[in-house]
Amino acid sequence: PPKMAQGGVLKTLQRVFRQPGMRPVVSTQPCLSLARLYSQETPSLASVDESSATGNKEVRRSTTAQGLDVHDSPDIAQSIFETVWRRLEKTNGRHNLRFPQSIVYLNGAPGSGKGTMAQYFRKELELNHISTSDLLQSPEAQEAKDSSTLVNDSDVIYALFSTLLSPQHKFGVVVDGFPRTRVQVEAIKQLQDCMSDLHKEFFHTDLSAHFPRPKFHVVMLYIGEEESVRRQMLRGEKVAIHNAQVEEAGEGNYKEHRTTDVDEDLARKRYRIFREEGYEPIRTLRSLFNYHFIAADGSIKEVRERVLREFEYQSSLELDDTTFHKLTQLPCAEDISMHFRANLVKELDEYEARSPELVDECITIIQRDFLPLIRLCQSSGKAVIRSTNDVFYERTKALRIVVAILAERGFEVSVRRGHDNLPRDVDENGRIVSYIRNYVEFEVTFPKAKR
């Protein structure tokens, strides 16, 4: 074949097929398959039969139950990615390989609620939604989905990467249902490396804004096999009821009826493929990306709350290394809040031990100046107290003591310092002479009074 040495093909095949107790047997057909895999002229492998006889075992792509998966080889996975990448470069030009700034790969067990969570990401995080199932609508792809097997890896990867290059996705996307196989897992590893190379290549050019540092999140929604089968069967029942109502009414839209949602054996097969082909390989991404393992059992609200907690702080892998190193000098809000109560008690005890008279004075100020206004504003649950007491400027600890006392009693307090320019006199030229009066403004919030 063009641009391919037959000797290289043979050595690669021998390395892939050489297993304990197996004699390397190379036929013409797999040589053609591998050669086409390397060829830029035929990036898709859909038309190539990749099964070959090796003794009494059959080697087939996209399955582990049938024997050795040739795509377990890193060489094969890398070759598929390189084929897809060359085609993207040839079609779009290297300077137009502009992928989204942030990509969330949403995966999970069948029936785990990926579609529901994808809509949550779209609304709450303002990410565009890409469903890999929608990208693959060919008859061959539909047949594979109906039989609960996997669609050709090269077709999936090329379709997805081409879609990611659309300008409408530049600010971020959630990809529903990817990666699902070992090859696809390797593909996003390679994609991150290539995006990092593009980021460095164009960093000091006018195009730098189009090549951001890659920010990948991998979300795994997990449920057990029995729960997965139950949800798939329930979904099939709901679709059947809906479609029957549409049929009877003569209006409305039919919903897709999956064969795996009505056949329990196919549903279990689908789950086991997920475990073998998707779940285990995806776990290898934990050390590379922001990896979020979400228990998807429970209500939709509970799962959403788990997802929200997972995405609260992820700056360590999203910021540039130099920026993140500088920011780590500051504590996270969660760290401050976590130890607030313990620090508050310790701080008050220290003030009482070292400055008991100042603590007494602060309590008097609260009773005299704060509590009357707080009681007056109890229907709104918010009071603003402006104090001009000199103690807050003459003794800096006084401000901290007042805040600590109010917080200990259950009030939420925010503080702002300021000053007013007040007229004092008029000079001989008729100009107003002012003086500065400092103040401290306390915003105190508390539970509203019940009506």
Keywords:
single chain; alpha/beta; 3-stranded antiparallel sheet
Itemize the secondary structure elements and their pairings.
Layout: H1 6-17, H2 28-38, E1 52-54, E2 57-59, H3 74-92, E3 102-108, H4 114-124, E4 128-131, H5 132-135, H6 139-146, H7 153-164, E5 173-176, H8 182-201, E6 215-222, H9 225-249, H10 264-283, E7 290-295, H11 300-310, H12 315-318, H13 321-327, H14 333-338, H15 340-354, H16 356-376, E8 382-387, H17 391-394, H18 396-408, E9 412-426, E10 432-445
Parallel strand pairs: 3-5, 3-6, 4-5, 6-7
Antiparallel strand pairs: 1-2, 8-10, 9-10
Question: Summary?
Answer:
With 451 residues, the chain is an alpha/beta fold. It is built from 18 helices and 10 strands.
Structural write-up:
This protein is an alpha/beta fold and 451 residues long. The protein has 18 helices and ten strands. The protein has a five-stranded parallel sheet, with helices on both faces. It has a three-stranded antiparallel sheet with strand order 8-10-9. A two-stranded antiparallel ribbon has the order 1-2. Strand 9 and strand 10 form a beta hairpin. Helix 1 (6-17) crosses helix 2 (28-38) and helix 3 packs across helix 7. It starts with 5 loop residues before the first helix and ends in a 6-residue tail after the last strand. Residues 1-6 and 18-71 have low confidence and may be disordered.
